[in-house]
Design a protein that fits this description.
This protein has 254 residues and is mainly alpha-helical. It contains 8 helices and no strands. It has helices at 2-27, 29-42, 58-88, 97-119, 133-161, 167-188, 201-235, 239-253. Helix 1 (2-27) packs antiparallel against helix 3 (58-88) and helix 5 (133-161) runs antiparallel to helix 6. It is globular and about 70 Å long. It starts with a helix and ends with a helix.
Length: 254
């Protein structure tokens, strides 16, 4: 069963990588090109004969390079998603495989990406001090881990509270606890401000907007494809069979 779920996750991740590549090509690459143009316009002049040749051309970066990175990233996310689904299904709520996959994808987008994004939003590749990239990466990963651990703690808290309170109340209290932890962490961690004052605000906004959109497309695609395939694997019946069965039951009840 786990092997079949892993295959479902890889298929979903590969598809999500292709969709994300298309979205990033249309929505994100123009902002990257504008950021690179800004960097080149404000770089100090290079003496003749000392120009550095790019090891990889820009056309290759936003073509084959971006496609490869998107699909590999999607495959990795899809595989991890399948493993997390295999553990979470039946342990967190009693929803169907398809509904569990959709909820899990939405939670992953929120916890793994959106919350850390609010504290440390990404910058175009041509912006930022190269000497602080290690520090910036470490702080971002710390925020990701805090968000993930807080989410796991909130799930356990909800399970405990649900034994004494209504499910809606338990869910609300667990959500408030998660929000409190990530807000405190966001306020405690140091802020990073490396955007030049003269950098075009529109370019920065479009890049970050494309970043959120890419992740949203990625997780939506993983959740949608995996929900259909996992439903088949776990129950032996396609997703649409359940809709037809419910309609038949409702008709019989009339």
């Amino acid at each position: 069963m786990l092997r079949k779920l892993l295959i479902c996750g890889l298929v979903a991740g590969f598809f999500a990588g292709l969709v994300a590549f298309g979205f990033m090509t249309v929505a994100g690459e123009p902002a990257v090109d504008q950021a690179i143009a800004y960097e080149e316009a404000h770089a100090p002049p290079v003496p003749p004969g000392e120009e550095e040749q790019e090891p990889v051309s820009r056309d290759t970066q936003k073509g084959v390079g971006l496609l490869t990175a998107s699909t590999v990233y999607g495959l990795a996310l899809g595989g991890i998603f399948a493993l997390v689904f295999a553990y979470a299904y039946g342990r967190v709520g009693r929803a169907s495989p398809a509904r569990t996959a959709l909820w899990l994808a939405a939670a992953a987008f929120l916890v793994v990406y959106l919350v850390p994004f609010i504290k440390y939003p990404p910058n175009p590749p041509a912006v930022g001090d190269p000497d602080t990239i290690g520090e910036r990466t470490a702080l971002y990963l710390v925020m990701v881990w805090i968000s993930v651990l807080a989410a796991l703690a909130a799930v356990r808290l909800r399970r405990t509270l649900a034994q004494r309170r209504a499910p809606e109340v338990a869910t609300g209290l667990a959500g408030v606890a998660y929000l409190a932890v990530v807000v405190v962490a966001g306020l405690a961690l140091p802020a990073i401000h490396e955007i030049p004052e003269t950098f075009p605000a529109t370019t920065l906004w479009r890049f970050r907007e494309a970043s959120v959109g890419t992740q949203l497309v990625m997780w939506t695609s993983i959740g949608a494809v995996f929900s259909v395939t996992a439903q088949r694997v776990m129950t032996g019946r396609p997703l649409w069979a359940f809709g037809g069965r419910r309609r038949a039951a409702a008709t019989a009840g009339e």
